[in-house]
Amino acid sequence: MSVRLALLGLLGRQTSHGYRLKHRYDALMDPSGVVAPAQIYATLVRLERDGLVRQAGMDQESGPARRLYELTPLGHAEVDRWLTRPVEPAPHLQALLYTKVVLLILAGRRIEPFIDMQRETHLARMRELTGLRLSRDVATSVLAEYALYHLEADMRWLEAVASQVERLTKGVAGDDERGGRTS
Amino acid sequence: MTGYEALEGVIDNVEVPLLQARGVRKAFGPTCALRQADVTVSAGEIVAVMGPSGSGKSTLLHCLAGILAPDEGEVVFSGRRVDRLNEEQRAALRRTDFGFVFQFGQLLGELSVVENVALPLLLNGVRRGKAMAIAREWLEMFDLADLALRRPHEVSGGQAQRVAIARAMATSPKIIFADEPTGSLDSAAGVTVLDSFTAVARSRGVAIVLVTHESRVAAYASRMIVVRDGVVTAPAAAEWSR
Lengths: 183, 242
Known about the structure:
The structure holds 2 protein chains of 2 kinds.
Chain A: H1 3-13, E1 16-17, H2 18-28, H3 37-49, E2 53-59, E3 66-71, H4 73-83, H5 95-106, H6 112-133, H7 138-162, H8 165-178
Antiparallel strand pairs in A: 1-3, 2-3
Helix pairs in contact in A: 1-3, 1-4, 2-3, 6-7
Chain B: H1 3-13, E1 19-28, E2 31-41, E3 46-50, H2 57-64, E4 72-77, E5 80-81, H3 87-96, E6 98-101, H4 113-123, H5 128-141, H6 157-170, E7 175-179, H7 187-204, E8 207-211, H8 215-218, E9 223-228, E10 231-233
Parallel strand pairs in B: 3-8, 3-9, 6-7, 7-8
Antiparallel strand pairs in B: 1-2, 1-4, 4-5, 9-10
Helix pairs in contact in B: 4-5, 4-6, 5-6, 6-7
């Protein structure tokens, strides 16, 4: 997730300051709040340097005075361009899960126990997310929904793998032998 | 406190399962669909039954619900041996204590929505006026009151499924058996159906046995069991508390 583009997107809606932007970013994009305030302020400085945002006075309504930022015409154009282009699908959505499954098949081990275990782990998280999805907070609900669909896709893929273990085992082992990497 | 009183206290605190299957086996000709199945369902809990197509999920559900008689083993509901009941007794149990929700074609096209919901009450001998009033209350609970006089073909798939759930709930059963209840719906409609189904069941303390192959659906349950090649496994780590 690009903090830079997210801040531009948030500023496209209204003039804001670093403190409020951090709050909005956490609420809408990342409830875990891993982006440090310093990163928000440093990003705003860089956006100003690049001519995408500019200062728009001070907010003195509540608490200490805070510097307000707004998008420049160049910033508006950048946001429009970014928002209206499709996102390229990531080449490896869950690389670790994929790698484990391939290695288990390659090792000739039974895949079903792993799938059962993974199903439990995924379902425990999906259960939490199902609860979060019913949250009154729309951002939390939408984010939980997004995560649920992705975890569901993992599980569907695992079930598909489980239904064709024999074919996959032959295929993976064959590829291995043709590559001359058997031990 | 006497010894008997102490013993009664202990007995009161022991949770008696609402439904319990022990060593259930069911074959169709040479094909063994279910082997030595052990399943326990407590009052008010939602249990997901997962597994691939043809794994025996539906056979398990049908044995638990007294639709199929197991070849071996026993099924006990509230202290009664379901597998020993004759067909008439099992049908009576299905009309009173059990509710059913299936994937397709559950509503009678000749009846209105409210009549469909009232139907099991009428079959149980409830007078028509009272049955219709109860049915309307259930429709209200599932946000379907405006559709009461429509025919099933005049409502959406998701609405029809909520009507079917309202009908399953109308007799105030202790347990509902749901076989892929959202299998014919798109994701958004499925979510709406499950949200209301599980919320109402939890508020009423109704247990649900929820057969599904979708993890998204199973995530509504408080516990999961898996059926594969007719064998039931209930991973300990799959038990969560709500």
